[in-house]
Write a structure and sequence with these properties.
- The complex is a heterotrimer of chains A (365), B (167) and C (100).
- Chain A is mainly alpha-helical and 365 residues long.
- Chain A has a three-stranded antiparallel β-sheet with strand order 5-6-7, with no helix packed on it. A two-stranded antiparallel sheet of chain A has the order 1-2.
- The longest helix of chain A has 39 residues.
- The radius of gyration of chain B is 21 Å and the shape is globular.
- The longest helix of chain B has 26 residues.
- Chain B has 167 residues and is mainly alpha-helical.
- Chain C has 100 residues and is mainly α.
- In chain C, helix 2 packs antiparallel against helix 3.
- The termini of chain C are far apart.
- The mean pLDDT of chain C is 91.
- The chains are: A mainly alpha (365), B mainly alpha (167), C mainly alpha (100).
- Chains B and C meet through helix 1, helix 2, helix 3, helix 4 and helix 5 of B and helix 1, helix 2 and helix 3 of C.
Amino acid sequence: MLDLIIDILIMLAKIAVVLGSLLTLTALLTWAERKESAMMQDRIGPNRANILKYRLFGLFHPIADAIKLVMKEDFVPGRANKFLYTIAPLIAMFPALVTFAVIPFGDTLIIGGKIITLQVANLNIGILFVLAIASLGTYGIVIGGWSSNSNYSLIGGLRAASQMISYEVTLGLSLVGVIMVYGSLELDQIVRAQGALLWGFVPKWGVVVQPLALILFITASVAETKRAPFDLPEGESEIIGYFVEYSGMRFGMYYLGEFAEVVVSAALITTLFFGGWQIPFLTAAGFSFPFGWSIPLPGLLVTLMQVGAFAVKVVFFCWFLLLVRWTLPRFRYDQVMALCWKNLLPLSLLNIVVTGGVIMGLQFS
Amino acid sequence: MIVTFYIAGTLAIAASLGTVLARDPLRAALSLVLCLLSLAVLYVTLSAHFVAAIQIIVYAGAIMVFFVLVIMMLDPGERKAGGSRLLWAVLGLAVSGVLLALLLEPISVIPEYGGEVSRGFGTTEAIGGAVFRHYVLPFEVLSGLLLAAMIGTVILARKKERGEGVA
Amino acid sequence: MIGLSHYLILAAMLFAVGTLGVLTRRNILIIFLSIELMLNAVNLAFVSASRFLHNMDGQAIAFFVIAVAAAEAAVGLSILIAIYRARGTLNVDEVNIMRW
């Protein structure tokens, strides 16, 4: 009985850690986006919000934004479907939060004889769960666009939905090469398999064995989360999108959901292509470099370093995805569709064929 | 597990009734999505993890999105009430009731099967083994079927250009 | 204990509800959705039989049923769009110019 209670408490602690850091990072990203765009455009960015004259580089702006959004008038457009109008932002935010359940953020932790896997749920269909939940995110957009009872929202919703379902195909196919190389769908197994060393000194990370899949996956996930340069469905300054009739915290949920999806995309890129929590040459017993030199380290310190490495990598890729937004101009809609169906999809199929050929060649040599 | 079965089963039946009795097609489609999600939960209780994931990715995530997009674009009007609707509803209920009775009768006499499933039952490797060992021919024919469906959809839904007759 | 008969009863009920929808409703879209409901009931029967008979074939068949349902939904909806463009209505009672 006590074992059961301890297990439940450990699971709750893991969920709290994952959700807490995800939501904190999401809120920080709203600040980071504005600061990073300001630095790239030779401005200062937000720095006015203060508590008792302490400005802290504008880090109070996310709190100020949240208070502002909560205080706004909560209205539903006339003749709009109230139930669907309310539920659409929730459905849009749901995939970003749930996907983190299968992402491993560290090696197994052994505390006092208890083995704790640093992953909320170890499913044997790991990557398929991520793809399934991502495909459910389309409903939030479509229902939001339709239930606003406005022509422009409806057209924006259809644009967004067709972009999302087109890039889902490329997203899935670009992962097939990664699955073939590492031989498993479970994200835990994929991260562990990236600890192997190729030719004695190169870690077998996804970026080394599947570079084309990395480029395709980054492009498809930027398009899937509707961030620039694929943000025509939102089109903040030019044409209005599916959330034009939303205001206050309902819009806040769409807005935060988009940043949460940035964090999730960064976490997936880290896990699948950059070794997840792996630090090169760091095993559970300490560093072991290829020319024989090794540094023994206690197991708990190793695990903490690996969790820290995962956090650093995720933050780096969040920064990179924000950088992409302020560097590239927006694509036109037909360019977006042509890019997916005529360029990215054949490239991902080519990647699968070449990967299969190389694996078979290595097997028979 | 028993609790999961009853909750998901009740949700599936309620959502299916919502589909069939809905006022407008959008509500029916969204109820069907809910039914598909509860069926995916039931597949997980049956250790069919891969089929559950495929159900959500393909059925709830692609087919039903297609349905919802078509409903939104066509935007059908409200339902007109007809006079003889009650007679047809009663006849439909009678036929469905007879069908249900015919289906339930042999179910009540099947023996009790049970036992734990082997490790690796319902995983992707197991489905891959079954499909690519025993069902390779249907798999290849399926790719031909999907190609035919793609071509047929594009041709059927195309707007008629000027100069085309009855195509 | 939940056995095979529980799942089969649930599948039979879903199938009967789908049949009710096909027979009673007049809107083509809802008839379509009821047909998909019947396909799903059959899928549930296949998967539950596969689990209790310890045979993977049922899940492979369910996988094929889902793929075929995708193809059928695509073609059926495009036919529906063509009918809507030609006849302007989604009521099956009004698409009857080929009746004798």
